[in-house]
């Protein structure tokens, strides 16, 4: 029994000693990983700025390296080529938008506010956070193995927006409509802002997002209100 307890104590001491040796290494490794992720994000933002200024086809890795304040060799340490950079720009942006759509649907908010929240997030992530990331607009420039992954996520995002519209109709907050058509119209209007938005323009991203959110959602909500009030008017006319 004593031997067993001593053996257990020895194992415990060995485990603690091992933990003491590995914990600093893990902490240091985590710091290196976080620094690497932050640097990659800086590079993605630099690439997005170059893509906006020059267009994806004309942008070169040397241009992106200069924008990111890196040598071309250092840039290739983080990304194998422009194709990979474009993919990560799109992938990160679509992930954020999908998360926003899922969070909006889970929130206990009116359907109109849920959709406004998604619209604002969409424009923030495409115009501001990644400074015009080409999330939906340059998919055809990707290699097939990368393109299929982005298209799959993009379709999932469209379905999430469509589900918000369907939910609003089911609640009676939106008028009956072709949810797929409306979702595509909304997303088309949002994606097109990447073509005309300029960071030095008259309106901020927040102002554009608020304005478009009100404009696009008002049509659905107003139509629902009209649908609800028409029978009341008919009844009123009948009583007269």
CATH architecture of the largest domain: Orthogonal Bundle
Tally the helices: what do you get?
Answer: 8
Overall form: elongated
Summarize the biggest pleated sheet. none
Helicity, in percent?
Answer: over 70%
CATH fold category name of the largest domain? Tetracycline Repressor, domain 2
Rounded mean pLDDT is: 80
Describe the protein.
By secondary structure, the chain is an all-alpha fold. The chain has two domains: 63 residues, Arc Repressor Mutant, subunit A, CATH 1.10.10; 148 residues, Tetracycline Repressor, domain 2 (Orthogonal Bundle), CATH 1.10.357.10. The protein contains eight helices and no strands. The N and C termini lie far apart (99 Å).
What does the secondary structure layout of this molecule look like, with pairings?
Elements: H1 2-54, H2 61-67, H3 72-78, H4 82-106, H5 111-129, H6 144-171, H7 179-196, H8 205-239
Question: What can be said about this structure in brief?
Answer:
With 240 residues, this protein is mainly α. It contains 8 helices and no strands.
């Amino acid at each position: 029994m004593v031997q067993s307890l001593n053996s257990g104590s020895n194992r415990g001491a060995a485990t603690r000693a091992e933990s003491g040796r590995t914990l600093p290494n893990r902490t240091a490794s985590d710091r290196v990983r976080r620094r690497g992720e932050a640097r990659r994000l800086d590079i993605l933002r630099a690439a997005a700025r170059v893509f906006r200024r020059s267009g994806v086809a004309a942008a070169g890795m040397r241009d992106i390296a200069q924008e990111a304040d890196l040598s071309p060799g250092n840039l290739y340490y983080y990304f194998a080529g422009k194709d990979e950079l474009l993919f990560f720009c799109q992938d990160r942006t679509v992930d954020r938008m999908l998360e926003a759509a899922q969070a909006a649907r889970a929130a206990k908010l009116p359907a109109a506010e849920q959709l406004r929240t998604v619209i604002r997030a969409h424009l923030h992530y495409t115009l501001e956070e990644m400074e015009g990331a080409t999330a939906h607009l340059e998919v055809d420039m990707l290699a097939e193995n990368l393109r299929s992954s982005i298209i799959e996520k993009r379709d999932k995002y469209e379905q999430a927006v469509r589900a918000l519209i369907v939910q609003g109709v089911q609640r009676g907050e939106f008028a009956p409509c072709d949810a797929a058509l409306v979702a595509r119209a909304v997303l088309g209007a949002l994606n097109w802002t990447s073509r005309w938005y300029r960071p030095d323009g008259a309106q901020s991203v927040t102002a554009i997002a608020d304005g478009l959110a009100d404009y696009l959602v008002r049509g659905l909500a107003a139509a629902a209100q009209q649908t609800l009030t028409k029978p009341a008017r008919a009844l009123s006319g009948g009583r007269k």
